[in-house]
Structure formats: structure tokens, C-alpha cells
UniProtKB/TrEMBL annotation:
Domain spans labelled C-type lectin: 109-221
Name of this protein: Ladderlectin-like protein
Top-level taxon of origin: Eukaryota
Alphabetized InterPro entries for the sequence: C-type_lectin-like, C-type_lectin-like/link_sf, C-type_lectin/snaclec_domain, C-type_lectin_CS, CTDL_fold
Gene3D superfamilies: Mannose-Binding Protein A, subunit A (3.10.100.10)
Signal peptide from the UniProt entry: none
């Protein structure tokens, strides 16, 4: 069979030898009816699809705009909430000058002489510890406090100790022991019995290890 109607061999029954009976014609026409409309349907369906796409696109765009507006409003609301929370967090995290003054006021000199251990317990009873020192600025603040309270750079306990193990120094408040201001030749553990840290030692007013059972003034610091 020739592809006389331009539909090609695929629209035929494929046999070629079958006589062109009415049934065959109907069969071929049915193929034709199926096949021809397929092209039309494809186009038509395509147009419908295009129209549907267009309408759907409009609806989709409209919905997207709607969602965008809602999303934008939600984002703005969330952003405002986040900004408010950040402002509160900053207010809590970064104390102003008044809070800094309050923290400085929590460092105090205890004039009454006590052994190192009793001085530490006395600080604990006030919610603090013997002072720890982490840089030269902190050390100078402690020296100024001692001078302003006692009018001299008096030897005074702060929180350093190597009582647990020789030459393993700790601050009683648990902070890192990462700054040193030892006097020359100190700590010397003189007599094998010096395990507590006193400040304002010697002419240079530096640090010395000394017998812990000696009674001295002390400096307490209460953490913020
Ligand atoms: Ca020692
Ligand atoms: Ca010493």
C-alpha cells in the first residue's frame, strides 16, 4: 500500500495484501480518523494548553504576587522581631558605663589580715573570689585599689596558688593563669613552703609566692 493520503505507512494496517473491503476501509478510516485528528488535537490541545498555561500563568503570577506580598509582610514582621530581640540581646550583652562602674565596685580590699585560705573563704561568703589578674591593666587597678584604701602599696593576697602541686599555679576563680608579674627570682618556693601569691612585693611591687598561713590583707572580686 502506498502512502497515498500522506499519512505514511503507519496509518495502514501494515498487511498490504488485505483486499480493500468496506471493513478495511472503515479500519483505515478509523486509523485515519484517529491519526488525522491526532495532529489536530495536538495543535488544538496545544492551543488549549497554551491558553490554559496563559490563564494558569496569570493565576500563578497572581498567586505568586499574593504570596510574595504575604512573604514580604512576614519577612518584615520577622525582621522587626529579630531586630527587637537583637537590641535586647545587645543591651544585655554589652553593659554601658553604669554597668561597668557597678562591676568595678565589686572589687574590694579586705583590710583585716587573714590567712590565704580564710581570705578566700571570706570572699566566697560575699559571692566572690580572691582577685585574679590577666593583664597589666587589671594589676594596676588592684594596686590603685590597695593604695586608695590603705595609702600604701601593701603586700596583699590575691587568688593565685600552687598548693595542689608545686609550680602549677591556678587562680581560685578558675580563670586561666595566663599573665605573670613575678619579681625576679620568684616564685622561689622558699623553704619548700610558699604556695600562695602576694602582690606589691619588693621595690618593684611585683608578685611573690609566700607562706599561705601568714595573715595579710586581701582583694576580693565579685563576678558580674
Ligand atoms: Ca609553691
Ligand atoms: Ca617567694
Amino acid at each position: 500500500m502506498k502512502p497515498s493520503d500522506g499519512l505514511g505507512w503507519m496509518v495502514s494496517d501494515g498487511g498490504g495484501a488485505e483486499p480493500r473491503t468496506e471493513a478495511t476501509l472503515q479500519k483505515q478510516q478509523s486509523w485515519t480518523r484517529v491519526t488525522r485528528p491526532l495532529k489536530g488535537e495536538c495543535l488544538h490541545t496545544g492551543r488549549l494548553k497554551l491558553q490554559a498555561d496563559t490563564q494558569g500563568e496569570q493565576e500563578r503570577v497572581s498567586l505568586q504576587q499574593h504570596h510574595l506580598i504575604i512573604s514580604t509582610m512576614k519577612t518584615l514582621a520577622v525582621s522587626a522581631l529579630v531586630c527587637a530581640m537583637m537590641a535586647l540581646t545587645r543591651a544585655a550583652a554589652f553593659p554601658g558605663p553604669k554597668a561597668a562602674n557597678d562591676q568595678a565596685a565589686k572589687t574590694n580590699l579586705v583590710k583585716r589580715p587573714m590567712t590565704w585560705a580564710k581570705a578566700e573563704k571570706n570572699c566566697l561568703s560575699m559571692g566572690g573570689n580572691l582577685a585574679s589578674v590577666h593583664d597589666i591593666t587589671e594589676y594596676h587597678e588592684i594596686q590603685r585599689l590597695i593604695m586608695s584604701a590603705s595609702y600604701e602599696y601593701k603586700e596583699t593576697w590575691i587568688g593565685g596558688s600552687d598548693a595542689q602541686e608545686e609550680n602549677q599555679w591556678f587562680w581560685s576563680d578558675g580563670s586561666p593563669f595566663n599573665y605573670l608579674n613575678w619579681c625576679g627570682g620568684e616564685p622561689n618556693n622558699a623553704g619548700g613552703n610558699q604556695h600562695c601569691l602576694q602582690v606589691n612585693h619588693g621595690a618593684e611591687k611585683c608578685w611573690d609566692d609566700y607562706q599561705c598561713n601568714t595573715r595579710k590583707p586581701s582583694v576580693c572580686v565579685k563576678k558580674a
